[in-house]
Amino acid sequence: MHIPSLGLGTFRLKDQVAIDSVRTGLELGYRHIDTAQIYGNEAAVGQAIADSGVPPDELFVTTKIWTENLAAGRLVPSLRESLARLGLERVDLCLIHWPSPGDAVPVAQYMAQLLEAKRQGLTAAIGVSNFTIAHLREAIAAVGVEEIATNQVEIHPLLQNRKLVDFARQQGIHLTAYMPLAYGKVLAEPVIQRIAAAYGATAAQVALAWLLQQDFAVIPSSTKRDNLASNLAASRLRLSADDLAAIAGLDRGERVANPEFAPRWD
Prior knowledge:
Blueprint lengths: L7 E2 L5 H14 L3 E3 L7 H11 L7 E6 L9 H12 L4 E6 L10 H13 L3 E7 L3 H11 L4 E7 L7 H10 L3 E4 L11 H10 L3 H10 L4 E2 L6 H8 L8 H8 L18
Parallel strand pairs: 1-2, 2-3, 3-4, 4-5, 5-6, 6-7, 7-8
Helix pairs in contact: 1-2, 1-9, 2-3, 4-5, 7-8
């Protein structure tokens, strides 16, 4: 399973805003679209895909199973509902969005359901999101490491998640970085701005290029056409070893996504 390295995130985008963002992204050349049940925008994403005229087989669409649908007998029906909203026969990748809060539902139980969804042809690949090392170990034990296409987690220059990244790489598990700009906090960093000026690039492009050069997939979002186009162009920017090292020095464990039900982070 090849996950396109640069995709379009849709977190917090709703209704016509979501439709316009995805439609514009597809016009610009994005082919990797990331959504989730809890975002409440699967129907809008599906509408944008339908309006775009881009054949579904040219797209890579990811959705995520919400925690309420992890209990026995609920995951597969919920994914069928997602597919109906998206207007697709299957998604390319389906993730567990978060581990069950308080581990009320065992990892092995919902990973088995996710694997069954794949066997039924509802998704081409499966994976996880926001999984700690402990949760990853359980997922590996449940379905095998070869079935885990990615772990989608928060990674950006201010939160580099090194312990988790090192473990995932040791296991051969791909990583997708969400919130790669930390809601714009990364863009204000003088180191990022200095490097951007040296390359005639934007601060966002530098932050995204830093992630891409480490072989993470990234899924930034935007509602503005210029920003969508600029982010897409980040894949053409190559930073020097000195630049990569300078950005690596910005890590301060500054986590953005940390809801009450989050697991105990590594």
